[in-house]
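Thread: Newbie trying to understand structure tokens

Hi all, I'm a second-year student working on a class project, and my supervisor (Dr. K.) asked me to get a predicted structure for one chain before our next meeting. I've only ever worked with sequences, so writing a 3D structure as a token string is new to me. If someone could post the tokens and maybe explain what I'm looking at, I'd be very grateful. Here's the chain:
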Amino acid sequence: MSDPIMEKKRENWGTRIGFIMAAAGFAIGLGNIWRFPYLVGEYGGGAFLLIYIAIIIIIGIPLFYVEAGLGRKAQAGAISGMRKLTRKGSVWVSIGWLGVLTSLLIFSYYLMIMGWLFGYFVKVGLGTFEGITVEQTAAIYDDFVANPWLVTGYTIIPTLILAFVVVKGVKDGTEKFVRLLMPLLILMLIALSVFSLSLEGSWDGVVWYLQPDFSQINGEAVLAALGQAFFSIGIGMAAAFTYGSYLNKNNSNLVEDGVWVISLDTFIALISGMVIFPAIFAFNMAPDSGPALIFLTLPSIFEQMPGGTIFGLIFFLLVILAALTTGVGFVETLAANASELLNLKRKESVWLVTAVSFVLAIPSILSQGPWSHIEIFGMDIFTFIDYFSGSIMLVVGALLLSLYVVFQWKTDNFIEDMNTGTEKIKIPYAIKPVVTVLIPAAIAVIFISGLI
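---
Reply by user tm_fold:
Sure, no problem. This is what the structure looks like when written as tokens:
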């Protein structure tokens, strides 16, 4: 059987809803349910949320169109595609290389977090958190993440699941998987938010989450919001490029589909906050617990709730499903590029990238235990990789994308290409100043001020 990635005629999505669910599935994952809430918690709630939404609308949506549009135009992975659109050795090919490298780094620690989730799903099911204090919950977390053998064992599970799904191909693997899981994920999250909002004292959490307090905002917070927007949507990871490359070049409605993808992604982020923060405030927990937020606070909350074990199992199952839909996108992106660059069959490239990603996850796993003393700029290995990939590499990649439109693609050509295949919603030419000046300038200013 011929390999779909290697064929001259590139494999396409089976349906329009398949692309929307796959792209939204990549966007909707740990970035929404794990990373977004802890950043909101660290940077004071409502003001960070407001800045995040503004960045999504002004910068995120246009750049998603840029990256997915480049993929549709090139009909190839990010590295081969940029070579095709420019030339081999062009400085613009760095967009593809940087995106793939960023995707690989993020996916490496993403696998570790997925291992934590599988571990906590088992712990909640076994009743590990029944009748214990908040301090004991923290001790269980510390002991668990510091045990590299246990975490590595749990990390193998999602690694194998993702490989088996993606190896089946775009239509039969990636598309079918996310079309099944995405509606289930959305329904579960809505149900959990309703339950969380029904708790006594939950309104304090709603007010904290939605009421802006701009005294909490500085350059670092705005840079974090920018990086989170790119992390969540998937800009600068070569994933939107790869998924866009499976669209029909002349007969796909990318403008309207992009609105659906980003609307679903933003909705899930917002509703995740409505699950977590009302519950945290209802039980007098701290919202600024950092990356460990859902692991430190939520198990204690579940055990104080009527039917808390069931609630906890549903929640961690929900996060696992969300993480898997994103993980599929990482493997698809890395495998597509590896297949084209190394002339590998799809099956070979999928197993290669999952094996490499698993090996790269080990330093992050060890950094929570035996290697916890190793620091890079005052951060452990996992925290440094998260910061460097999420707040530096993604932002630089997005800046390069915005500059490519200005200097190489040209804004008029970009708008014309995006409107190909559209039916109702079209990108107006009035958006030119935003694309040409505002977006690259805003990214540059936020990036520099955040670093300073």
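A couple of things are worth pointing out once you decode it. The domain at 16-451 is CATH 1.10.4160.10 (Hydantoin permease). DSSP finds 19 helices and no strands in the chain. Feel free to ask follow-ups in this thread.
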